[in-house]
Amino acid sequence: MAFKKLAGQSLLVSSLLLAAAQAQAEKFELQLPSSAPEASYDGRLILILAADDSKEPRDQVSADFDAAQIFGINIDGMKRGKSAIIDGDILGFPARSLKEVPAGEYTVQAVLHKYDTFNLANGKTVKLPAARGAGQNWRKEPGNLVSKPFKVTFDPDSNKTIEVKLSEVNPAIEEPVDTEFIRHIKIRSELLSEFWGTDVYLRAHVLVPKDFDKHPEARFPLAIFHGHFPADFGGFSETPPDPDAECVYSKRFDLDCYNKVEAQEAYDLYQYWVSADAPRMLIAEIDHSNPYYDDSYAVNSANIGPYGDAITYELVPAIEKEFRGLGAGWARFLYGGSTGGWEALGVQVKYPDEYNGAFAACPDPIDFRQFMTVNLYEDDNAYYREGPFTRIDRPSHRNYLGHISRYMEMENRWELVLGDKTRSGQQWDVWEAVFSPNGPDGYPQRIWDKATGEIDKDVAQYWRENYDLRYIMERDWAELGPKLQGKIHIYTGDMDNYYLNNAVYLTEDFLEKADPPYEGVVDYGDRAEHCWNGDHENPNAVSRLRYNTFYVPRILERIEETAPEGADLTSWKYK
Asked: Following DSSP, what letter does each residue of 96-118 receive, concatenated?
């Protein structure tokens, strides 16, 4: 009996020692320097472990299964010189915890994505990353603290602590400079400043026509080229490509020297723009980056603010005043791809009299019955489909052959690691920030539980009534139809990587039977991936670089067809 008792005690002691060892598994101590510019910080600490040392770990972070490993924790009022711990209990991606990270050598880096405090007009207070010039890129945002990369030998079964010192500060970003063809405008938005409780600015990078300054009498049509955050007007260069430039491979298109293709297309746009046959008009790219994302989706939102009104009624008139726009709805157009495609169609639907056409390429979901691969109104879970005996994951990314590379749960967990409360600055979170009602805590209400995927049907109904573009058009077509005739043009590849063609199919079903007829275009690219724009002659790798030259001639045709009697169709047609 005594022996049995001793053996039982030995087993108990062994179990306790094993539990203690697991509790003391290897961890990371992230330290703010005593020399940090600010006395204390709020924000998200992001730890990165990379198996590849060819570039900095922060530049290897993505939602892919083979990306760098990340972990994230919030800090609130953390003082300079203090530290925080990331251990085996912290959620990660792709591995869920440090306990699941294989032993081996890794390059380590940490970033503090700092938050500011906003006292909103609705009386609520939130902490969010202010837009500071990098388009909500946490890797580059000025003022963020960063550690220098270093190598470690990691063992999940060890009990040592690895120190990571965030000794560097991201520098400020220089303002773009005016040139002969690219001009810039920045305005303080009264509407947005009131919403956010602080000064908020809107910017635009405007491509002006040849000899703009030599023709002060001319007034011009305006096209808004919607899309993600632009540091400046993109894809336009007065300098020929450098034949000696080092080649850069494009993983997306599996093309070597794709940087040279981009450089040539940018120079070709310049040559077209200064030719005798080029249109004399204004093209603007808008910087409406905000605390939730690199742009606002250009519509009014309970969480992001009245960006739709601010852009349409404050920024667009300011552009037209500064650069001699014609200043009328018949002479304003919208186009863009992906996010920009949704924005082009969304703004046209929300402001039907203020714009004369939308060219929406590969738009983000425009019918929420196919929100990528989820029916928000009928499905119970965004991550899985369930049968009586098993469940299968919902995909979120594929190639043109249908091979799946990412799943819904993967992408959403990746975002949750980067930031809670819809603060990741990534795609699923921005849809939530734009489309959701404001929650009791001041942050967006979740469309689904980020951990489980369970859909909130009340929030889904709010989305439908306010942002489901197909539903809104069908619901209000008696009023909208006459205003939108000839203005809706939608293009998508039938193998869009993000399944965006599914929502276009459903939208086309409505448009084809709409009364009065919509008199527009819905077109599909055979086996074309994201982001096909209607060009049947060239592959995506090329056509995506030709939005301006591809759409501008069609814009001019509609101007001439729909201009009211007495409209100025001559002053801007100089050679």
From this structure: SSGGGSPSEEEEEEEEEEEEEEE
How far apart are the C-alpha atoms of 402 and 487, rounded to whole Å?
Answer: 32
Cβ(416)–Cβ(96) below 8 Å:
no
Is the Cβ–Cβ distance between 239 and 184 less than 8 Å? no
Strand partners, 92: 71
How many alpha carbons fall within 13 Å on the CB side of residue 534? Answer: 21
Average pLDDT over residues 139-151: 97
* Residue 336 φ/ψ region, left for φ over 0, alpha for ψ in the -120 to 50 degree band, beta for the rest: left
Using only C-alpha atoms, what is the Rg of the chain? 26
Q: Identify the pLDDT of residue 11.
A: 39
Tokens of 251: 């993983």
- Separation between Cα atoms, residue 47 and residue 429, nearest integer Å: 20
List, as one string, the DSSP characters of 12-71. HHHHHHHHHHHHT--EEEEE--TT-SSSEEEEEEEEEEES--SS-GGGG--SSTTS-EEE
CA 227 to chain centre: 9
**392, 408 in Cβ contact below 8 A?**
no
- Give the three-state DSSP class for 351: coil
CA distance 515 to 107: 61
Q: What percent of the chain has pLDDT over 90?
A: 93
Selection from 558, 559, 555 nearest residue 567 by Cα: 559
What b/e sequence results for 478-496 when a residue is b if at least 16 CB atoms lie within 10 Å of its CB, and e otherwise? eebbeebbebbbbbbbbbb
Pairing verdict, β 69-79 and 92-93: antiparallel
Q: Which two tokens stand for residue 509?
A: 């079903």
Write the CB contacts of 458 (distance below 8 Å, at least 6 apart in sequence): none
Percent of the chain with pLDDT over 70: 96
Return d(Cα 504, Cα 494) in angstroms, integer. 10
Backbone torsion region of residue 234, taken as left when φ is above 0, otherwise alpha when ψ lies between -120 and 50, otherwise beta: beta
Tell me: the pLDDT tens digits for 251-281?
Answer: 888 899 999 999 999 999 999 999 998 999 9
Q: What are the Cα distances from residue 542, in Å, to 238, 263, 532, 550?
A: 19, 11, 10, 11
Of 109, 116, 107, residue with least CA distance to 136: 116
Closest C-alpha among 531, 421, 405 to residue 67: 405
Residue 488 corresponds to which tokens in the numbers above?
């809706």
**453: Cα separation from own chain's centroid:** 21
Q: What is the mean pLDDT of the chain?
A: 94
CA separation for the pair 331, 572 (Å, rounded): 12
Distance between CA atoms of 351 and 412, rounded to whole angstroms? 32
